[in-house]
């Protein structure tokens, strides 16, 4: 829109109030339309130049605002407003020229932007192709990432294995260091030993020379021994014949010895039976004798036709010395072969030696009268165990059982005697 006819309207402002008001309204509308058109053109052409558009929008908005505010007071201040509008027109003319110049510049910029848009479209097409390629590459990278995860897991396991192996190698290195130190010590010892061997080598050389001389003498002796060997061979043959004859005789003696052993066993059994009968007869005889006297010497106690002696309270001794005391008193260590006798013997002291031992033969328990223990006896549980050469037997009052103990231990003792007065 051109501003060429605006001067005619402005020249007739003084003709009348009515015309002035009409011209003022027209001017306002025209100015507003011009501003709106210029603003729209500026928005369309300068889409990418936001800072410039915002600047012009602010100016025109201020102008419209000023025009709107002044519209209420124009009736009272027409002359003043006419002068102001004239100035505004001049300013608008200047701005119009500036806007025209700017429009030309914006046209050029639009053409440049159009060219740039075409380039951007081409670039966008290229980017689309690159995007597709990148998508394919991304899929490949995803697959590679999965493989890398598997590889990372394997590497983690391998790292742990290598750590364990490193620890084992460190331990092995420490062991090798210790072994190295030991080898150094051993090397030092071997060096010393080498010196000793060198000295021995010299001695061995001397000994070798002596042995060479001795070997020559041995050769002579060997020849003599060959002759002697021939003679000894004849003697050996004779001795072999004699040996065979002796073997036959030995086998016959073994058979005879076996027969004698069996016969001895039978005789031993018969002897034990006879000894047992003898003991029973002796007990019966003692019982008959005691029935005639019915008393024991002072200090002895009568029980079942036998006299028993308890060692004094607090006195202890070894098994051998205890038996010697009993023999000196005309008796022997007590031989409790029945439960009744065992109870009576155990009453005297808390512990007492009795006349049972395996001193003559380990594991063969014999009474002091020479008879073997023929039954299981009255042993404590787990006894006899022969711990520490336990060859003699003691009985305890609390348990009334036998226990094997070392003969050197010191205990009280109990003597036994047949007949009145403790005499056998």
Automatic annotation (TrEMBL):
Residues 115-127 have a biased composition (Polar residues). The chain crosses the membrane at residues 25-47. Residues 70-81 have a biased composition (Basic and acidic residues). The keyword Lyase does not apply. Residues 70-91, 110-133 are annotated as: Disordered. SUPFAM superfamilies: C-type lectin-like. Keywords: Disulfide bond, Lectin, Membrane, Transmembrane, Transmembrane helix. InterPro entries: C-type_lectin-like, C-type_lectin-like/link_sf, C-type_lectin/snaclec_domain, C-type_lectin_CS, CD209-like_CTLD, CTDL_fold. Residues 303-416 form the C-type lectin domain. One of its GO terms (molecular function) is carbohydrate binding. SMART domains: CLECT. This is C-type lectin domain family 4 member M-like. The lineage of its organism: Eukaryota, Metazoa, Chordata, Craniata, Vertebrata.
């Amino acid at each position: 829109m051109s501003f060429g006819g605006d001067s005619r309207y402005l020249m007739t402002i003084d003709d009348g109030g009515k015309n002035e008001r009409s011209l003022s309204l027209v001017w306002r509308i025209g100015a507003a339309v011009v501003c709106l058109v210029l603003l729209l053109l500026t928005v369309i052409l300068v889409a990418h130049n936001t800072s410039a558009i915002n600047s012009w929008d602010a100016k025109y908005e201020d102008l419209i605002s000023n025009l709107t505010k002044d519209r209420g007071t124009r009736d009272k201040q027409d002359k003043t407003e006419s002068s102001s509008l004239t100035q505004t027109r001049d300013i608008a003319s200047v701005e119009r020229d500036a806007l025209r110049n700017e429009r030309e510049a914006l046209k050029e910029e639009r053409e440049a932007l159009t060219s740039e848009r075409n380039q951007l479209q081409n670039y966008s097409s290229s980017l689309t192709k690159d995007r597709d390629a990148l998508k394919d590459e991304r899929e490949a990278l995803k697959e590679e990432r999965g493989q890398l995860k598997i590889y990372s897991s394997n590497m983690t396991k391998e790292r742990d294995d290598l750590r364990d192996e490193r620890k084992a190698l460190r331990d092995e290195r420490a062991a090798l260091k210790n072994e190295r130190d030991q080898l150094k010590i051993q090397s030092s010892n071997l060096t010393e030993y080498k010196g000793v061997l060198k000295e021995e080598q010299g001695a061995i050389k001397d000994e070798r020379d002596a042995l060479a001389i001795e070997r020559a003498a041995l050769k002579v002796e060997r020849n003599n021994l060959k002759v002697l060997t021939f003679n000894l061979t004849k003697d050996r043959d004779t001795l072999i014949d004699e040996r065979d004859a002796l073997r036959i005789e030995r086998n016959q003696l073994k058979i005879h010895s076996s027969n004698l052993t069996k016969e001895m066993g039978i005789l031993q059994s018969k002897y034990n039976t006879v000894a047992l009968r003898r003991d029973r007869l002796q007990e019966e005889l003692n019982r008959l004798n005691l029935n005639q006297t019915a008393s024991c010497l002072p200090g002895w106690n009568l029980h079942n036709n036998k006299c028993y002696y308890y060692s004094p309270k607090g006195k202890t001794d070894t098994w051998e010395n205890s038996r010697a005391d009993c023999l000196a008193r005309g008796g022997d260590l007590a031989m409790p072969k029945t439960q009744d006798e065992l109870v009576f013997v155990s009453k005297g002291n808390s512990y007492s030696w009795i006349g049972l031992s395996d001193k003559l033969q380990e594991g063969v328990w014999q009474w002091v009268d020479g008879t073997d223990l023929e039954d299981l006896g009255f042993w404590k549980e787990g006894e006899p165990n022969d711990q520490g050469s336990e060859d003699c037997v003691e009985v305890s009052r609390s348990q009334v059982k036998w226990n094997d103990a070392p003969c050197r231990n010191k205990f009280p003792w109990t003597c036994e005697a047949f007949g009145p007065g403790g005499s056998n």
